[in-house]
Structures are given as C-alpha cells and as structure tokens.
Specification:
The structure is a homodimer. Chain A has about 400 residues and is α/β, with parallel strands linked by helices. Chain A folds into two domains: about 130 residues, Aspartate Aminotransferase, domain 1; about 250 residues, Aspartate Aminotransferase, domain 2, CATH 3.40.640.10. In chain A, about 35% of the residues lie in helices and about 15% in strands. Chain A is built from 13 helices and 15 strands. A seven-stranded mixed beta sheet of chain A has the order 4-10-9-8-7-5-6, sandwiched between helices. In chain A, strands 11-12-15-14 form a four-stranded antiparallel beta sheet, covered by helices on one side. Chain A is globular, with a radius of gyration of 22 Å. Chain A starts with a helix and ends in a 15-residue tail after the last helix. Chains A and B meet through α2, α3, α5, α6 and α10 of A and α2, α3, α5, α6 and α10 of B.
C-alpha cells in the first residue's frame, strides 16, 4: 500500500496545505475531529494580539484593532462554509452556551409548545442543555431514535435539535429532509455542526434551517476550547430573543443604560465580553479552511477514509465498522467497535498514531483532510494491524484510564 | 510635585513590580480597571501553550498539560484574593454568563421568591442578566437606590445582587452589612467583584457571602476578554443547581451519558469546553497579583489616588468628584463629572494619558497599583490641568465618538 499511497499523495491537490500546519514529527494525527492541528500562522497572530494589540495598544485596540467587530468578522468567514450569509453568523462563547441561547430562542418563538426533540446518543452537551431548560421548567426533552424522529414530531414540538455528523459514528443526517419534517410539524430546526463545519459542505440556507451552532476547535483549527459560533437565519433575526442578555448583545452597549434592548442583528446573540485571544486564533484557522475550500476538503476526506479501509482489508484487519460504509453518508471519520477499544487506542498512541476512544467501546479515527496524507493512512492501518495482531494492547500500561479519554 | 513623587516612588515597596508588566513608553495608563496591562511573563506562557501544548502535544495536553484542571487551578489562585477557599472558585466563561448561572441558582434555592434586587446604575450586564431571567418568567427585577436597599429587602426577594466596587463611581458597598441584611430577609447574596478583585482585599467567607462572580481582564491582568470566575460558598456546593448544564459540568463528562448529573463540586458551574489559551494567560496575571498581595496593592492604590488628588489641587484643577472622597470608601479609582468628559478623555489619550469615559459625563481614572508610579500621578495631573486650562479638548478631533468608548 505505501506505493499506492505515494501515487495518491502525488495526485492530491491539497497536499501543499500540510505545510501550513504544525504536524508533529512521528505523529499520525487522526484526532483532528477532537482538536485540530495548529496552523503555522497562528503563533505569530497570537503573539501580535498579545504583545501588540494588548501589550502596546491596550484598551485602544477595541477600536484600532477592531476587537469589537471580531465576533462578527470571524462569523462572516465561517458563514460560506455552512451555507449562511455573513450577517447570520457570530463567533462567541462555547457551543454549549450557544445551544442554550438558541434552544431558549426557539421555545420563545413557539409559545404553547415545550418539547425539544433530539436523539438518544446525541453529543451529551446538546442533550444536557435541553435538560438545563427542562430544569428551569421551560422545556420538555423528548428523545427518539433517528429512524423514529419523524414520528415523534407532533404539535408539542417547538424545536428539533440534531447534530449533523454524529460525534461517535460519523453518521450524517439528511439535513434538508429533517429540516423539512420539523417545519411540516410546525417546529423549528437547530443543527449542531460541530463535527461537520470545515470538513464537509453544509447548506443551512439551502435547506432553510432556522438555527445552528458549531465548534471552533475541531476542523476549524481554532485551538483548545476555541470560541464557538452561532447561526440565526435572516428571517428570524429581527424577532429572535435569547435569555443570556449580556451587555455585548445590547443595541448600545456603551450607553450603559439600566434596561436591556437587544441589538437588531446577530450581535443580539453576544453576551459578555468576547475572549479576544481565542477569537484571533480561531480567525486564523477559519481563514485557512476557507482558503482551502470545504468541497475540496470533503472530496479528499472521503478518499482518505476509503483508502484507510482498503489498507485495513489488505492488512487482514476485520473490525466492526459502526460508521456508515457509504462515504456519502458519513462525515470525515471512521469508527470501529472493539471491546478493548480503550487499550487499543492507548497502544496506538504509544506508536504515535493518535485517534481516540469514546465510551464504552468505540475506536474513532478522524480524517482532517487539510493536513493528512494517504501515506498517513497506510502507516496508521499498518500500526493498527500490528497492535491487533501482536496483542500488545493487552499490556497493563494501556489499561489505565486517564482523566480525559 | 515631581519631587514629592520621586520620594514616594523611592519608598514604594511595590515599585519593582512595574518591571513585571509591559507599560508602553510614553503612556500613563489609568485604565487598568478596564483592561489591565500585559504581564511580561504572559507572551512566553501563551506561546508555550500554543506551540508546545497545542501544536506539539495536541489532544494529549488535556491530561499531560493539565488543561482539564485549569478552571479549578486558576480558581484556586483567585480564591485567597477574595476570601474564599480554593475549592469554592472556578474560572470559566464570562462574568455575564456566570451571573446567569448564579442568579438562576439562587432562585432555585429560594422557591416561592422571584425578586432579584439590585441598584439602578449597577453595571449593565448585572442588570441585563436579571432581565434575561425575567424574560424567561423566572425572576422579577427590582431596583432600589443604594440607600434604600435594606428597605427593599422583603419576603419576595430571593437574591440581592450588587457590585462591590461601583464601576462608574468606585463607591464601595459594606459587604458584611449588606450580606447580613440580605440573609436577615431570607435572601441570598451575590457579589460582583469585577472592579474589586486584585485591587483590594475582599473577604467573601468572612461576611458569609453566598455567591460571587468577577472579571479576569481588569486588575487580574488576564488579557482582553479573559475568562471570568465564579464563587459558590462551600455550604451551598452540594445542593446548588444552575441551568447551563454543559458537559464539562457533568460528574463524569467522559462517560458521555444521555442524562445530566452535576459534578459534586465547583465543576458543576462549568458548561462548555473552557478556552485554554485565555485561561493560561489569566493564570499568569492572577499568579502575579497573588505574589504581590492584595493588602499591599490596596495600600498603594489609596496612596496613589490621594496623591493624584493633591496634585490636582496644587495644579488648581477643580473637578466635581463623584467618587467617595474617603479612600476607605472607594475602590482603586477616581471619577469626576464634567460635561465635556468625552472630549477631555480623548485629549488626554492624545497626550498618552489613558483614562476612560463613561456615559454621559464621567471621566474615570483607575489606579492599578501593580504598575503605576507616583510620578505617573504627578504627570497625569499636570496633563489634565493643561487640557482643562488650554481648552484643547474643544478641538473637533476630540468630539467624535468611537464605537467603543
């Protein structure tokens, strides 16, 4: 397979972009869906923000460096990646906090309906943020398996909240079909794009989605705990209300009035003072992904994952695939089930192949197409085959669970 | 006054700490209560996080670099500055988001009571976050002037929410007396310490406060939009519930279960994935302030502001002081009223004296004692006298309002 990998790499139009990232020597990084690699341009940008904008220009940078516009500016670069207009997206807070804002906003737009529908096994924070509003007495959480979601959409449902690419299996929802089903039931649609954005094209406006959120530190390469983003469709911007009414969401924050009046546009989603260093780092990652283009990224990611599967077959590895086998029906990842998934993951990490484990028995490999090569696929498959064949994952050192798995 | 300033600087035990900060040449920075100066150690720490922990160690840093413990670690360094135990404080999200969590938590602890009492003119986000819960139908906002707060504390009040040091005037509340009054009325007490922490000693547990929040980017020098912190008194930790129930607040985040179960300790205040770069920068600022010590900082800040006032008197400046004239009754700032406050502020900035303006007519000078000298006070007073005397603030260039004032 190394020969085939070399041919594929030679024909890969995205190959030059690998040099735009810090990919550590000796590491095959199949965890870009958890924390994306560092863009090479980021350290200098962060240093400029810290030493120049903060250290030298201090408070003046809110105007002179445009800090005050940074949430909207980063949002506007994310917008075309997700099929949104620039004024419909802002970057701020965390995915979880933005979920709370938009679930609450949807409930306020559907008085008399309290049910927020999702699927069991959705990313926990999605489910937990519904639970937070449920604890407030404002929502009722309803979960239905993905095949039964349409049946569960009745006249009580205010909002359907789904994650486009499943974090564990990589399975994709049909965004247009589900959004249509939600609307037909009189409900609104909120998409969590955390495992999609930057890896595959998303067309929020094309399928008339109402709301979306997503993560900045996965395929957008914004850095650990990077700010998240939020989308509100233009047709809702004027009327939407969210309860985290902090001063940065005010129509005139610097009037310092006692009474809240929401900003007319997407700024109404802002709450407290945005984290500037994190936003600046995120901007670099987002600009780079926008430059490469999500269509090209998605095309390569499908080739990468299919090639990885072929390498496994040739190496005689027979693992239970829990991701859809059709690349058109999954995001940029492959997940396998194995009862020793945790230890296998640790044994691979010891060899420099970093994937990750998801409780209880999932081995998850993400294929960030911006910086991975086909040679990486061949090498990773070989390591996985050796780990399984040798049984080295049974060593005691690979059994002990770390705080973060 | 330059001679007196030189004598005071020579006798200032904190003078050596100025070199631990980047204080730009030609700038007298009287706005550390809006955005604190850059600690000299911060850029290297941030670079290490970006290039080393993120770039080289990638996802492994959640364990190896202790990212997962960073909110608690930073919280534990803040704790002694505010009279708290280390396990009662965490650093996360923004002040506004933390206000929402703790206002909601207080309401849940006082079923049957819906009123959240504060004062008009409190920092807007404090008032707006109450309004957000009011819009949800869960709270009723009541405002009473500070002299009438005790009268307004009746059996409907669930929570008294006040800012210890007023952002505009610098006036201090008697924390012990107000907390006692709230408790006597059966209400809980939440202190916003944004303009106090790092500038003066605060004793939350000494006055039996229930909750507190505070800002990381003012006197803690954590950088623009730094993460904030939140305090929950130990006696409430077991039972307190807050609605922003994100995955990082779960008892077992990496079990990825569908149902939320709050972490037993202060981690239950966490919501989404914390911003690591911002937290790391904040940690440097907090460590430095803790090293200097808040008692020493407060002693110097009182001397600085009193000396500034003397310099103004000697320069013949007669401005209306809106801060308490007794330094024991104010935080680390002096605010003056002038109908041309905005233009005067701009004229001073043009001379390198950076204070700030607060709508509609307040000129605000913060005295961050960690990096200001008595010579700065003498120079700033001279510039202010010259700006007023010359009328240069009347120039057209100083009238135009920027986006951020």
């Amino acid at each position: 397979m190394p020969e085939r990998a070399a041919i594929l790499d030679a024909g890969d139009p995205l190959a030059p972009y690998r040099d735009r990232f810090e990919v550590p020597q000796g590491v095959i990084y199949l965890d870009g869906n958890s924390l994306g690699c560092l863009p090479r341009a980021t350290p200098a940008r962060v240093e400029d923000v810290v030493r120049g904008e903060w250290g030298r220009d201090l408070i003046r940078s809110w105007n002179s460096a445009g800090w005050i516009d940074l949430p909207r500016r980063v949002g506007s670069i994310i917008a075309p990646l997700i099929g949104a207009q620039p004024h419909e997206v802002t970057a701020c807070d965390t995915t979880s906090v933005n979920l709370f804002k938009l679930i609450a906003a949807a409930l306020a737009l559907r008085p008399g309906r309290k049910v927020v529908l999702s699927e069991p096994g959705n990313f926990p924070s999605d489910l937990y943020m519904i639970a937070g509003l449920e604890r407030q007495g404002l929502a009722t959480r309803r979960l239905a398996a993905r095949d039964h979601l349409k049946d569960a959409l009745d006249a009580d449902v205010a909002l359907l909240l789904l994650t486009h690419t499943h974090y564990k299996t990589g399975a994709l929802f049909d965004m247009a079909a589900l959004t249509r089903a939600a609307h037909e039931a009189g409900a609104l649609m909120l998409w969590d794009l955390s495992h999609s954005v930057g890896a595959l094209p998303v067309d929020l406006n094309g399928c008339e989605a109402d709301f979306a959120v997503g993560c900045g530190y996965k395929y957008l390469n914004g850095g650990p705990g990077a700010p998240a983003f939020a989308f509100v469709a233009d047709r809702h911007l004027a009327e939407v209300e969210q309860p985290l009414t902090g001063w940065m969401g005010h129509a005139s924050p610097f009037a310092f009035s006692d009474d809240y009046a929401a900003a007319p546009g997407i700024e109404k989603l802002l709450c407290g003072t945005p984290g500037i260093i994190g936003l600046a780092a995120l901007e670099v990652g987002v600009e780079l992904i926008a430059e490469i283009g999500v269509e090209a990224l998605y095309a390569k990611s499908q080739k990468l994952s299919e090639f990885f599967r072929q390498c496994l077959v040739e190496a005689g590895v027979d693992l239970e695939l829990v991701s859809p086998s059709d690349p058109a029906r999954r995001g940029s990842q492959l997940s396998f089930r194995h009862r020793h998934a945790y230890a296998i993951c640790q044994a691979l990490i010891a060899r420099g192949v970093i994937g990750d484990f998801r409780d209880p028995d999932i081995l998850r490999f993400g294929f960030a197409p911006a910086y991975l090569s086909f040679a990486d696929m061949a090498d990773a498959a070989r390591h996985l085959a050796e780990v399984l064949e040798s049984g080295e994952y049974e060593r005691e050192e690979f059994q002990e669970r770390a705080a973060v798995t």
